[in-house]
Amino acid sequence: MVPASEQASERTWLARLSANEIERWGRYQVPAAQRRYLYCHMLLRYAAGQLKKSNAAPDLSISHDVMGRPNLHVAATPYAVSLSRSHGMVACAISEFGSRIGVDVESYPQFGWSLTEMACTTMSADEASDWSSVCNDPQRSFLLNWCAKEAYAKALGVGLLRDPS
Predict the structure, then answer these.
(1) Is 91 exposed, middle or buried (0-12, 13-18, 19+ CB in 10 A)?
(2) 57-115 pLDDT tens trace
(3) What is the separation of C-alpha 79 from the centre of its chain, rounded to a whole number of angstroms?
(4) What is the distance between the alpha carbons of residues 86 and 88, in angstroms, rounded to a whole number?
(5) Is the pLDDT of residue 6 over 70?
(6) Which residue has the higher pLDDT, 160 or 63?
(7) pLDDT: is 149 or 54 the higher one?
(8) What is the 3-state secondary structure of the chain?
(9) Contact 84, 105 (CB under 8 A)
(10) What is the pTM of this model?
């Protein structure tokens, strides 16, 4: 249950999204997913304000390229941006336009699936061998490897279209 004060903040924040962002937000059917999307985009606005060293709401626009990657313009200055959200966490990374950037954040829950199976499908044979023989915290090690791969794939602009192994 989301507290009433937080619900009021979320309604105020929704009014700050662009029409395109509201449309994308509306595609999420689960309220928690909508909330993560909203928090990510509010974090983006906060970070954009820090770029201009201003407490005022920045003049920003967000566009997406043909692959769906977001691009940010703050007061007509272009930046590359990467957003990630997962189970109550959000992350935002911004770089000067022309240099792609990627970020990923994942929660650290007890997995409901085989960690070894996931490692074998997302790691190369050498990585999986090293991972299974060296790590003393398999979940943490797997998530560090996964986050690095996903952030790198985002920076390349291929996302999960490319085999992560």
Answers:
(1) middle
(2) 557 777 777 777 777 887 777 888 888 888 778 888 888 766 788 999 887 766 667 77
(3) 16
(4) 6
(5) no
(6) 63
(7) 149
(8) CCCHHHHHHHHHHHCCCCHHHHHHHHHCCCHHHHHHHHHHHHHHHHHHHHHCCCCCCCCEEEEECCCCCEEEEECCEEEEEEEEEECCEEEEEEEECCCCCCCCCCCCCCCCCCHHHHHHHHCCHHHHHHHHHHCCCHHHHHHHHHHHHHHHHHHHCCHHHCCCC
(9) yes
(10) 0.74
Structure tokens at 90: 């959000």
**Could you tell me the two tokens for 68?**
């769906």
Contact at 8 Å (CB) between 80 and 97? yes
